[in-house]
Amino acid sequence: QSALTQPASVSGSPGQSIAISCTETSSDVGGYNYVSWYQQYPGKAPKLMIYDVTNRPSGVSTRFSGSKSGNTASLTISGLQAEDEADYYCSSYRSSTLYVFGTGTKVTVL
Amino acid sequence: QVQLQESGPGLVKPSGTLSLTCAVSGGSISSGNWWSWVRQPPGKGLEWIGEIHHRGSTNYNPSLKSRVTITVDKSKNQFSLKLTSVTAADTAVYYCAHNGYYTIDSWGQGTLVGVPS
């Protein structure tokens, strides 16, 4: 089963902005606006950060934002902080499997 | 926001059946929407297993469909996962979760289930 492709790792210095991409070769990411992003600390459950491509749940910092262009969705973290160091996963709705997750990206704060 | 708590054996014999239960608190399982199971092998990514509606309708990941059954018990405010014919490849942290609209908006803490090789 194919998954959404993310870079294995992304790093940045405190205060910088970084972007994590999520690319799907089929039409799923591009065809639907049901892209979500999750943050996961080691040994912890994922936490929803973005849903419906651009929407933030209540309580999520405005430093996190989502976008989509064609078949690539992106999560941008602005004003990078040490607490942002975690794994990040995208997820997309698919008609066949309903939910497919990305390969995951480890964010390192230098 | 509801709270979810997984429970079940931490070790399952090869070819056996993995059985987990998710207790829902802070809200009724009949309040609507869907409830999912997701797993994560050690050091790897997330895999959606399937979902159930409180009325009993289910959807499964095609890659696991032949081995998975998800059920709901409204009287106990919980839902359950059964995965048959397990192998070492089924070793993972299993999460139960609540679905929003085409998103998974809250997660249990997860439970590690091992299948020795």
Which features characterize this protein?
heterodimer; A: 110 residues; mainly beta; 6-stranded mixed sheet; 3-stranded antiparallel sheet; 9 strands; 45% strand; globular; B: 117 residues; 6-stranded antiparallel sheet; 4-stranded antiparallel sheet
Structure description:
- The complex is a heterodimer of chains A (110) and B (117).
- Chain A is built from one helix and nine strands, in the order E-E-H-E-E-E-E-E-E-E.
- With 110 residues, chain A is mostly beta strands.
- The longest helix of chain A is centred in the N-terminal third of the chain and has 4 residues, at 28-31.
- Chain A starts with 8 loop residues before the first strand and ends with a strand.
- The model of chain A has no long low-confidence stretch (mean pLDDT 91).
- Chain B is an all-beta fold and 117 residues long.
- Chain B has strands spanning 3-7, 18-25, 34-40, 47-53, 58-60, 68-73, 78-83, 92-99, 104-107, 111-113.
- The termini of chain B are far apart.
Count of distinct strands of chain A: 9
Pick out the low-confidence regions of chain A: none
The geometry of chain A reads as globular
Rg of chain B over CA atoms, rounded to whole Å, is 13 Å
Helix fraction of chain A by DSSP (H/I, runs of at least 4): under 10%
Name the poorly predicted regions of chain B. Answer: none
What order do the helices and strands of chain A follow? EEHEEEEEEE
Tell me how many strands of chain B there are. Answer: 10
Strand content of chain A: over 45%
Count up the helices of chain B: 0
Q: Give the biggest beta sheet of chain A.
A: 6 strands, mixed
Largest interface: A-B, 26 and 23 residues
Strand content of chain B: over 45%
Give the rounded overall mean pLDDT of chain A: 91
**Rg from alpha-carbon coordinates of chain A:** 13 Å
Q: Pairing-aware structural class of the strands and helices of chain A?
A: mainly beta
One letter per element, helices H and strands E, the order of chain B comes to EEEEEEEEEE
Helix content of chain B: under 10%
Question: On the 0-100 scale, what is the average pLDDT of chain B?
Answer: 95
Shape of chain B: globular
The biggest beta sheet of chain B, please?
6 strands, antiparallel
